[in-house]
Amino acid sequence: MPIVPKPCASFVVSGVFQHFTRDALKKAITINAGKVVGSISAKTSYIIAGENMGPSKLEKAKKLNVKIISEEDFINLTS
After folding, report:
1. pTM of the model
2. In the β-sheet with 67-69, what is the strand arrangement from edge to edge?
3. H-helix or E-strand containing 25?
4. I want to staple 20 with a disulfide (CB 3.0 to 4.6 A). Which of 2, 25, 35, 64 is the partner?
5. In a domain, 36, yes or no
């Protein structure tokens, strides 16, 4: 299923990433008109899941039906 970004989408960043540091990933989100938020809520658009993502964040994202994407998905979304 293709990822369709919402205008001013909100993102939670969790885990360790191969292509970005966490700060660089957060900057890429804001450069692409997204909003970085610190915790998952029903208003969160996406969670970018890296390696070793916290299990409680994963569980909460699934419970709230937040779209979980990978680092590669984010790169494709913004290119």
Report:
1. 0.87
2. 35-36, 10-14, 46-49, 67-69
3. helix 22-31
4. 25
5. yes
Number of domains in the chain: 1
Give the range of the structural domain holding residue 14, as residue numbers without chain letter.
10-78
Beta partners for 36? 11
CB 36 within 8 A of CB 13: yes
Residue 26 counted as domain residue: yes
Q: Classify residue 64: in a domain, yes or no.
A: yes
- Kindly state whether residue 27 falls inside one of the protein's structural domains: yes
Return mean pLDDT, the chain: 89
Burial of 6 (0-12, 13-18, 19+ CB in 10 A): exposed
The token duo for 10 is 């909100």
